[in-house]
């Protein structure tokens, strides 16, 4: 990507974020035109923290990936033997996943965590949310999104969340907004905390991150 293209992308994204805090995602996937280097969060491989946690805690079953992005986490769980449903609010993003992984049996769906389909309620052994709550602004809709996650778990199902943690030292004006540990714990207080771990990556040591799991 050239510097000019990059600046254009950033200014379009900023304008879109201000006008439409969720809809800008579809605009970004559209602008990227299948060039994954234009998607800042695209790792193009499954999240290693998720893979390690899953291997240690659960073997197979029905999994739901919330806000699946370019789909690698869904494929990672499929390879671990899960029957996977993966959804994103962006139709462009889901079309891209279907093209990338046309051989996969993942059920790719366009859906909104603010209004999940009724047929998903209490259905999943594992629900995974990576960098989604922190991408949704607070003041109502983030709380609604969080409230909907436990509803998707079947009896004994696990919720796994991974993201940035508010360490009280960051002044953040635009997404991703780091989340407070207290807020996360209060949001899922109706299910059982299974573990909450802070970590950093060597290459971005100032960014405090967390992975946390709850069990229904
Ligand atoms: C920061 S990206 C993270 C993507 C992926 N989980 C990852 O870790 O690479 C946030 C994703 O959530 C999706 N998203 C945002 N709001 C959503 C909503 N209300 N329901 C479903 N997906 C949503 C966006 O389209 C985007 O793909």
Which features characterize this protein?
single chain; 216 residues; alpha/beta; Rossmann fold; 7-stranded mixed beta sheet; 33% helix; 27% strand; globular; binds S-adenosylmethionine
User: The CATH topology, please?
Assistant: Rossmann fold
Into which percent range does the helicity of residues fall?
Answer: 25-40%
Structural class: alpha/beta
**Overall pLDDT confidence:** 91
Total helix count?
A: 7
- Straight-line N-to-C gap: 44 Å
Low-confidence region ranges: none
How do the helices and strands follow one another from N- to C-terminus? HHHEHEHEEHEHEE
Named at the architecture level, the CATH assignment is: 3-Layer(aba) Sandwich
What is the number of E strands? 7
What's the gyration radius in Å? 17 Å
CATH class: Alpha Beta
Q: Note the main sheet.
A: 7 strands, mixed
Strand content: 25-35%
Tell me the overall shape.
Answer: globular
Distinct small molecules bound, one entry per kind: S-adenosylmethionine
Indicate how many domains the architecture comprises: 1
Within CATH, the superfamily carries the name Vaccinia Virus protein VP39
Within the largest sheet, what's the order of strands? 3-2-1-4-5-7-6
């Amino acid at each position: 990507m050239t510097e000019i293209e990059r600046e254009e992308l950033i200014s379009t994204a900023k304008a879109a974020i201000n006008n439409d805090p969720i809809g800008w995602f579809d605009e970004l996937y559209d602008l990227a035109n299948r060039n994954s280097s234009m998607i800042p969060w695209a790792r193009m491989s499954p999240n290693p923290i998720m893979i390690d946690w899953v291997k240690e805690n659960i073997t197979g079953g029905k999994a739901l990936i919330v806000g699946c992005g370019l789909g690698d986490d869904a494929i990672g769980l499929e390879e671990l033997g899960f029957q996977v449903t993966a959804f994103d609010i962006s139709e462009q993003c889901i079309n891209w996943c279907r093209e990338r992984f046309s051989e996969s049996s993942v059920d790719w769906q366009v859906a909104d965590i603010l209004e999940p389909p009724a047929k998903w309620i209490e259905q999943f052994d594992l629900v995974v949310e990576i960098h989604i709550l922190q991408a949704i602004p607070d003041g109502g809709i983030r709380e609604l999104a969080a409230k909907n996650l436990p509803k998707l778990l079947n009896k004994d199902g696990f919720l796994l969340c991974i993201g940035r943690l508010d360490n009280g030292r960051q002044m953040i004006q635009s997404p991703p907004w780091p989340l407070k540990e207290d807020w996360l714990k209060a949001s899922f207080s109706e299910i059982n905390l299974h573990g909450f771990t802070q970590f950093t990556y060597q290459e971005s040591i100032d960014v405090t991150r967390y992975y946390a799991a709850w069990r229904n």
